[in-house]
Amino acid sequence: MTQSTDPGPEDRKIITLARTARARNGVPEGAAVRDETGRTYVAGTVALASLRLSALQTAVAMAVASGAKSLEAAAVVSESDTAADADLAAVRDLGGARTPVLLAAPDGTLRSTMTAG
To answer: Is residue 1 part of a domain?
Structure first.
């Protein structure tokens, strides 16, 4: 994991989208992913009696369902400062081991960047 305080404009965009999803839906996590064409997919935590998905798993599933072939980057906004193994596995399945995963605080401050691998 590496520390970073200055994400580029495209990474700031997905952090903002993830932050907005979290706030709008009142969920513990918001996530956004960017595919190989630059399209973004935004999601919040899914917590149903019969289905539980993290925000990042949901965003990856949305990308796959929309025909994305790979991911350029992913962002998660939550109180946690780590990404779950299952979240990293979902990103790795579509994006590969080198796909950056940006971990941000609820205020949008980038805490760290890690790779899915």
So the answer is: no
Q: How large is the C-alpha radius of gyration of the chain?
A: 12
Task: List pLDDT tens digits, range 91-101.
Answer: 999 999 999 99
Task: Note the Cα 77 to chain centre separation in Å.
Answer: 8
Q: Is the pTM of this model over 0.90?
A: yes
Instruction: Give the residue carrying structure tokens 């990308």.
Output: 63
CATH number of the domain at 52, please.
3.40.140.10
Q: Is residue 2 part of a domain?
A: no
**pLDDT tens by residue, 1-54:** 454 557 899 999 999 999 999 999 999 999 999 999 999 999 999 999 999 999
Q: Which of 6, 57, 3, 11 is closest to 31 using CA atoms?
A: 57
